[in-house]
Every structure is written in structure tokens, then in C-alpha cells.
Amino acid sequence: MELNHTCVDHIPVVWLDPGLPSGSRRLAIWLPWFTGRKEDMQSQLAGLADRGFVALSYDPWQHGERGTEDPDALLQRVFGNFRRHMWPILAHTAEDALRVIDWAIAMLDISPDICMGGISMGGDISVAAAGLDQRISTVAAIVATPDWMRPGMDISPGEPDAYSQHLYDRFNPITHLGSYSHCPAITFECGAEDGHVPPDGALRFQEVLKDTYAACPERLRGNLHPGVGHKFVEPMWANSLEWFSIPQI
Question: How many helices (DSSP H) and strands (DSSP E) are in the chain?
Fold first, then answer.
């Protein structure tokens, strides 16, 4: 399958189309880790397309074609004050999902029943996006968290400025539990020994949403992978593919 390229407004997009007929076309969005690009997701997009999904990725805000720094400079700047610089990346890229989904429904002949996931930052964004757009029915978040505070993380979190605090206050998933009242199916695939994105956030999210998901507890899952730190390992990907393939609505 050929990797297609376009821009949706200001958002650079790539996708693979398995060529299925109308009426059986579902979209799966897969987003990269911090400093990653949409093109880095080509292997995952191929795996999703092999499962019959129209498989799409887009560059997060300040990444890839939307970036002005090389990856090392981006890493140094953001890790120099994580809350001030990371929270806007998460918020803007989560909002971008709505525009990309609008475009995909109009142009790619897909149903409004969207899977979305990603690795590390891409997983954080996907969880947040599911709270913004009820068309996202299914999420797979690998070594990711619903808590942008990330208590216990292995770098200094820094301090937000007024703008980044405003975005946190609007979009942070674990402080907007009502945004998940429609019970999107979410799996967290966590490294049990992850010190960069501690798995505690995913487990707390599962606990505080227990009543919301009381009628469908199987739609909210947290898998801990023993002995794994902040690393994308094959069982996490296998679980994500299986999760996307379960009919959810």
C-alpha cells in the first residue's frame, strides 16, 4: 500500500488505505512519541491497514513538518520546563484530532467510529482527544497517562505559565472525568517499572471512573507489563491491535 500525504488545514497528515468497500471502512489514528514524526509510525500504520483500517497519522504540534527545531533542541527545551512546554503540545494536538476526523469522514469515506492511539505522548494525546470528541470510540494508550501532572516522573516538572495552565485546566483528562461519560473503550498498556510516565496515573483513572463505567467495566483497562520501563514492547502493540479489533459500539 502506498503512503498518502496531504495537509488538513495546517496539519500534515499521512495515511494508508486498504481499499475496503464503503460501509466497512473504519479509521485508526496512530500518533508518535515526543520528538517523533508521523512518518515514524509507518510500521504501525501498515499493521493497522493489514487489519482493514484506514490508518492515519499526523504531526503533533511543534513536531515534524510543524516544527522549527531539530529533535534534540525540542527535547532540551521541553524537558527544561515540562509543564510550560509540554501541556500546549498535548492540548493543541488533541484538538487537531477533531479537524482531522472531520476531514477523514468527508474525504476518506470512513464511519464516525474512530480508533485512536499512540506511544507515550501520542497516547496521552489520544486519551485527551477521546474526552473532546465522542466519535472516538476506542483508544489504545501505550506507556501513556491521563494525568498531565505525572506525579513521580523522573525529570523536574517545572512550572506552567498562565497559558499552559489554562490549557491544562481545559484539557487534562483526569480532572475532566465528565468528558468520559460516554464510556469510550480505553486500554492503557503500561510499563510496570516506568519512571518517566508512571503507570499510577492510568490505574487511578481506572479507579475514579469505576462508577461511570459500572455497566461496561470491560471498556476501561490497565495492563501492567512486568519488568518494562518507558519502552514500547511487542505485547503492548499486539494488545492494542486486538483492542481496536473488538466491536465497541
Answer: 7, 8
How many other β-carbons are positioned within 10 Å of the β-carbon of residue 211? 8
Is 70 exceeded by the pLDDT of residue 19?
A: yes
The sign of the dihedral angle between the CA atoms of 222, 136, 176, 194 is positive
The per-residue b/e assignment along 156-183, b for 16 or more CB within 10 angstroms, e otherwise, is eebebeeebeebbeebbbbeeeebbeeb
> How wide is the angle at C-alpha 43 spanned by C-alphas 5 and 109, nearest 5°?
45
Q: What are the backbone dihedrals phi and psi of residue 221, each rounded to the nearest 5 degrees, phi first? A: -135, 145
Q: What's at 2, amino acid-wise?
A: E
249 pLDDT more than 70:
no
- Among 215, 72, 206, residue whose Cα is nearest residue 141: 206
Task: Tally Cβ neighbours within 10 Å of residue 218.
Answer: 8
Between CA 111 and CA 191 the distance in angstroms is: 33
**Residue 59, all three cell numbers:** 504531526
Delineate the domains of the chain, giving CATH numbers in brackets.
4-245 (3.40.50.1820)
DSSP alpha helix (H) spans, 108-132: 121-132
Rounded CA separation 110/26 (Å): 5
Give the single-character DSSP code of 218. Answer: G
- Its pTM stands at 0.97
Name the grid cell of 35: 520528538
